[in-house]
Design goal:
Length: 196
């Protein structure tokens, strides 16, 4: 009986050990499943965070691109030493558009309080309306300007043909010819405020 009892004890011990191993293995499987679930959840959260960050990054990139465009536009408003010839050409073409005689007499860079000021002196000639319209147009450019001095005067005794459309008849007519207009000269000193 001892042998039979011993076999029963060994079977019982083996069954208990087997059950403990199965339970341990079961707990291990459950632990791995939970760990995998947490890993999947963390991965999903990281992916969602990545998508949010990617969207924020793209928005920031667009804003930076927009700012770069604005900076380049604003830089166009600033005159520097390298863009002075372009500015002078712009002034001359503006005078041609206004049909006015224009002559730049002086271009100076004057140091004041550690910064430089660009001063342009010029003369104009034309009818009063054309000269004043030209001066007005100079104040409405994309670069900032300020007149330091401006003089407009007529040349006594010098007359110009009026700027009118239509024909003037040479034959004897009952309508008189249009009167001649005085020539006007303008002399000015223009400061380019947006000079850096």
């Amino acid at each position: 009986m001892n042998k039979a009892l011993r076999k029963q004890y060994i079977k019982l011990i083996l069954i208990v050990i087997f059950c403990i191993l199965v339970l341990g293995l079961g707990f291990r499987v459950v632990y791995q499943i939970n760990k995998t679930k947490l890993s999947v959840k963390e991965t999903k959260e990281r992916l969602a965070s990545y998508q949010i960050n990617k969207k924020a990054f793209n928005e920031e990139t667009e804003q930076i691109s927009s700012l770069e465009k604005r900076v380049s536009v604003l830089e166009g408003f600033v005159i520097n030493n390298s863009s002075v010839p372009e500015l002078l050409s712009k002034l001359e073409s503006l005078a041609q558009e206004q049909n006015i005689k224009f002559e730049i007499t002086s271009v100076q860079t004057i140091p004041v309080d550690g910064t430089a000021k660009l001063m342009i002196e010029f003369k104009t000639e034309g009818t009063y309306q054309v000269v004043t319209a030209f001066f007005d147009k100079l104040q409405h450019q994309k670069f900032q300007t300020k007149f330091k001095s401006m003089y407009i005067f007529s040349e006594e005794g010098s007359l110009t043909e009026p700027e009118t459309s239509g024909t003037i008849s040479v034959s004897k007519s009952k309508t008189p010819a249009l009167p001649k207009e005085l020539k006007w000269q303008g002399v000015a000193t223009l400061e380019i405020v947006s000079f850096k």
